[in-house]
Amino acid sequence: MHEENSMVPLYHQIREKLTARIENGEFKPQEQIPSENELCERYNVSRITIRRAIDEMVKLGLLVKKQGKGTFVNQPKINFFSVDLISFSERMKREGLNVTTRVVCVQEALAENKVNRALGLADGESVVKIKRIRYIENDPIAIETNYIQRDLLKGRMEVDELKKYLEQGNSLYDLLNNRIGIKFTRAHQTFEPIMLQEEEQETLECGENPVGLLIYRMTYSGDIPVEFVKVVHRGDLCKFEMELKNG
Predict the structure, then answer these.
(1) Check: CATH 3.30.470.20 for 78-239?
(2) How many beta carbons lie within 10 A of that of residue 185, not counting itself?
(3) What is the pTM of this model?
(4) 10-73: CATH number
(5) Where are any strands of DSSP class E within the chain?
(6) Using CA atoms, how far apart are residues 101 and 86, in angstroms rounded to an integer?
(7) How confident is the model over 119-167, as pLDDT tens digits?
(8) Most buried pick, 2, 50, 85, 188, via CB within 10 A?
């Protein structure tokens, strides 16, 4: 089953065998893998070896440990890169994925310094803060917090009305573009790998994999800053692909 005299460590050999079983479809996404005892018997190795192989696969995002339930095959990583300025829901629908959203809060709040600077607001000015948890195929994938200039909504939509609108599953971008008439023309994004905080790990249900991706996005209508966004993604379920061309 494995090479005892190989220069390749046993845990690495087991990791490769388990990875192959995932890649060939024997273990499917969200399916629980056999217990440590079962794997020890199958591969005739110690529990320490099995545990190390599994831990390596968790770090790589291939497996996820769910407390009190066991170890499961992770969802395939999803490509979040897009050159189009569209909403999260629309982007995921184009990938053929089922998307749901949980609205955590929609409220008027004093902007933080970073938000103030990004939106060109004076100290003490208020914004509309929208915090949502994004799910793909029932797995929490991202914590998204949007900050919008309060004046853009005055006389057009009250905060409570906006909350109900978003809780019904409607798109914020569709609202801003089509109902309020703010046309997004460009956006600037930065990407930064991070270690998730304990609360973020719990919210995103990412088990023992603390790696995340932090995205800041500034969206404009012409030269007017409209929206500042902070998104914390699960690192084990996201990837960004792009094609580069010469000239």
Answers:
(1) no
(2) 13
(3) 0.71
(4) 1.10.10.10
(5) 63-66, 70-73, 78-79, 99-110, 126-136, 139-149, 186-195, 211-221, 224-234, 238-239
(6) 16
(7) 888 877 889 999 999 998 788 889 999 999 888 888 788 899 999 999 9
(8) 50
